[in-house]
Amino acid sequence: MSSQKIAFVGVGRMGANMARRLKDCGHILSAVFDVNRPAAESLAAELGCSAPATLREVTAASDLIFTVVTNDDAMRGIFFNEEDNLLIGAEGRVFLNCATLSPGIHREVAAAAAKAGAACLEAAMASSISHAREGKLYLMIGGDEAAYQKVLPILEQMSVNRRHVGAIGRAAEVKALVNMVMNINTAGLAEGLGLAAALGHDLGMIREVFSQTGANSRVLETDSADMAAREHDCWFSAEHAAKDSGIAAGLAAEAGLNLPLNNAAKAQYDKMVALGLGGLDKSGIAELTFKGRHA
Length: 295
What we know:
By secondary structure, this protein is of the alpha/beta class. The chain has helices at 13-24, 37-47, 55-60, 72-80, 103-115, 129-134, 145-158, 170-198, 203-211, 218-229, 238-255, 260-274; strands at 5-9, 28-33, 64-67, 94-97, 119-125, 137-143, 159-166. It is 52% helix and 14% strand. A seven-stranded mixed beta sheet has the order 2-1-3-4-5-6-7, sandwiched between helices. Strand 3, helix 4 and strand 4 form a beta-alpha-beta unit. The termini are far apart.
């Protein structure tokens, strides 16, 4: 697989570090593309590859194309823009779509790719930027098993574990569940710490007690110190949290379910966006629950 020419479309912090990881593993990086042209050109210079001005040039230069874009609209833009898109001349290519998007857009893209003679997989990521750089991602794969096996050697170099969860769209559903629960846990932790602070408790002590009881959680490990210290450097933004909780809400509506906790968590992240705090890390939800902060 090292002879495969690999491109990345969407080179924010996740996409760029995934590309760096594959470069370190000896793979051929053919092209990088981003709506932020300076970012793409800078990364291209670092990796020794091209930064084409058009998406069709990315496809022409590559065998395997990773996409890491922000939302469904961005996905439609790179695959369905009439003037320029990745499906032009895409026969024989494989697309690995890694962003957290709705299941529907993954299915839409996969159907269009199949008509163009290309293969599509979704590779939902439940990991951080540092994991992308170090090859320690956890990947949920959706799509054809044969296509998955074809790219598995590359995915193994990017991740510590992988799970093939079914057909296209199924990985997006699982990722929506992951982020829904994570966002609810984060909102709950922020409320617990906010109330503890209002009652005059030492937050270091509270965090230690939480860690030894039923209040323990993964977000306690990753976010609680930042909530207490008001350090919200962005690893996973509140804006993305609002989007992902919204995807889960849409799936719940389709299934005929009411998810009041998800709805409440989404409302908090929507409020952060409305207050201009959407660029903060999800830990910034504590700004809405600690007495005397933004709320």
